[in-house]
Design goal:
- Helix content is about 45%, strand content about 15%.
- The radius of gyration is 22 Å and the shape is globular.
- The chain has helices spanning about 15-30, 75-95, 105-120, 130-135, 145-160, 170-180, 205-210, 230-245, 260-265, 285-290, 305, 310-320, 330-335, 350-360, 360-380, 380-385, 390-395; strands at about 1-5, 35-40, 50-55, 55-60, 100-105, 125, 165, 185-190, 215-225, 250-255, 275-280, 295, 325, 340-345.
- An eight-stranded mixed sheet has the order 3-4-2-1-5-6-7-8, sandwiched between helices.
- With about 400 residues, the chain is α/β, with parallel strands linked by helices.
- The chain has two domains: about 1-190 and about 385-395, 3-Layer(aba) Sandwich (Rossmann fold), CATH 3.40.50.2000; about 195-380, Glycogen Phosphorylase B (Rossmann fold, 3-Layer(aba) Sandwich), CATH 3.40.50.
- Strand 9, helix 8 (about 230-245) and strand 10 (about 250-255) form a beta-alpha-beta unit.
- It has 17 helices and 14 strands.
- Helix 3 (about 105-120) runs parallel beside helix 5 (about 145-160) and helix 4 (about 130-135) runs antiparallel to helix 5.
Amino acid sequence: MKTLHVMNDSIPLIGGYTIRSRSIVTHQRQIGMYPWVITSVRQGPTEKDTEEFDGIPHLRTNWPKKCFMRKIPLARLFQEEILFYRSICRAIRKISPDIIHAHSPILCAFPGLLAARKFQIPIVYEIRAFWEDAAVASNKFSSTSVQYRTIRWMETFICRSVDRVVSISRSMKNDLIARGIPESKVFVVPNGVDALKFESKPKNPELISNLGLNGKAVIGYLGTFYDFEGIDDLIRAFAAIYEREKNVALLIVGGGEMENAIRNQIAKPGGAGVIFVGKVPPDAVPEYYALMDMVVYPRKRTRITEMTTPLKPLEAMALGKPVICSAVGGLKEMVGLDNGLFYEPGNDRELVRCCKRVIHDPALAARLAAAGKKRALSERNWCCIVEEYPPIYDGIRRRPGSGNDKV
């Protein structure tokens, strides 16, 4: 079966979106499918129109050399969609796919849907997060704004129009059903981890020395710096631990839009004992995980954190690290209540208590590590998860338009 994956961007760019995308297509190839990838102009300029990664062709969409529309925001958006639609049509003529698989955001779904209907090819739309909720979480607009309602309506329209919908969590599926999308049309394919890429490494003595971690219990955070991730809550809670116990350290690894705010918070008196590393190359990530005695995911309670299941906890679990999480829906679904410690979001006292329990109870830490690793490798391994896609595709092959419900 040949699939054309319509994506916003892909590797060599690195992020949660591109990591999941790469896992999907590489594991589809391993089970005998023939995936192709096509990306939008938001990938950025590329020297070649076709690149190959992991033996999988990646078709690129580039801006023409002269395009004055790029300078006008709304006109630029329309031009991006037109260019992407034309690229998808060219790709379809070239490879004759059996299935078109469009991925979030709706800027990929719209041109993918138009092309699918033009060539009468079934289309699947995969939602990684609700775009409108991500915008609210980044303080771009409010949940009562016209922008929010418009984007939500567009997303719902797309889900009614495509043949099948894939979401990454049960919470997202339930939300779509509440909007009137038939339950039989919506499938859940959760986030996963590539076990072969996350094998435990011994601690690097030189790195321990350079970071000043000798003899210290290390509480860690590794991920992207968004406001809803709650890193400010973690730093504040750690200050209460460090006030009484000096043989601990908080190691923060990553980058993102909140980096300056985090640096400023660490620079204040409450930031003692915090070690800020910043972004590291993907190949170095397991080396930094190895330094952490526990990994904390202190997400704040928002609509996006209740519904989306982050990728990073699976990495820590696969490496045998105890995880401590705020009790938001996405983390509870991903980690499992028996495989980590949970606390009420924003409750510093509970977070401090959870960290101290792992620090001072080696048996508890070992149990959490073993349970988390078992879940990650047996239930959230991409080798198993990828098998969810063929039945979804088979249900709509040669039946384009079967999901085209009226709005």
